[in-house]
Write a structure and sequence with these properties.
Layout lengths: L17 E2 L3 H4 L8 E5 L4 H4 L7 H5 L5 H7 L3 E4 L15 E5 L6 H13 L3 E5 L11 E2 L5 H12 L2
Parallel strand pairs: 2-3, 2-4, 4-5, 5-6
Antiparallel strand pairs: 1-6
Helix pairs in contact: 4-6
Length: about 160
Amino acid sequence: MTLVADPEVRVDAPVAFGFAPGVREALPRFRGRCTVVRLATLDNDVLGVPRWYTLQEAWAEQGSTAASRWAGNPVVSVSASDDPELVLATSTPVVVVGADNAANRWARQVVDAIRETCRSVLVVDMGPRPDPSYADIATFGFDRQHGAALLALLTAS
């Protein structure tokens, strides 16, 4: 059996994101090294990519600046079976990425715990109907175009 990755997609059309108050001004803090918490609501089955893909492989053009910058960030994957009070031993900013964050009790608990224990937290909701209390950035989609635009936003220099 031969596995073939999806063709690379370039972001030609602008994607509109929703931003909580003050988030645009805080973005530079998250553009360097950060810890990424990936909620299981945005796993590879949801994204429609092979299970071994990372977010940059799912969303970024291979070898691009965005892919290279994003690949340097450690990723912690969290699901409903994990303790929501997970302790992140990090002084780096934390980016939480999920879909429909407010719709899942465990996802809300994880976001709340991270917000309580970390100084700089940016919560991204890629679902179609984000709740502003669990979305500092709302992308309104998690397809490759929205993902690439998010990585471009978070890795801009």
